[in-house]
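Researcher: Structure prediction, please.
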Amino acid sequence: DTKVVLINNLTRNVVEAHLQAIFGFYGEIVKIDLPIYVKSGQNRGKASLEYADSTSARTAVSHMNGGQLDGAPLKVELSDAPIR
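Model: Predicted structure follows.
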């Protein structure tokens, strides 16, 4: 079962610590990929998280898809693609 969660529609203010605090509520996160623009240092509006187990990933998706972070509705889904 997949352990990777894709998050889209992040606002520019979101940093890795926000993702760890909010999504870590659903289980142990073993890896976070939050691509940033080199010049501005701001995120690119998307992130990938890898949980220690697939149950945590499914729980995070069911609770956070359509939920809000920094005032923006999130699109959260499972992914079979591994995080680099």
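Model: The radius of gyration is 12 Å.
Researcher: Thanks, that helps.
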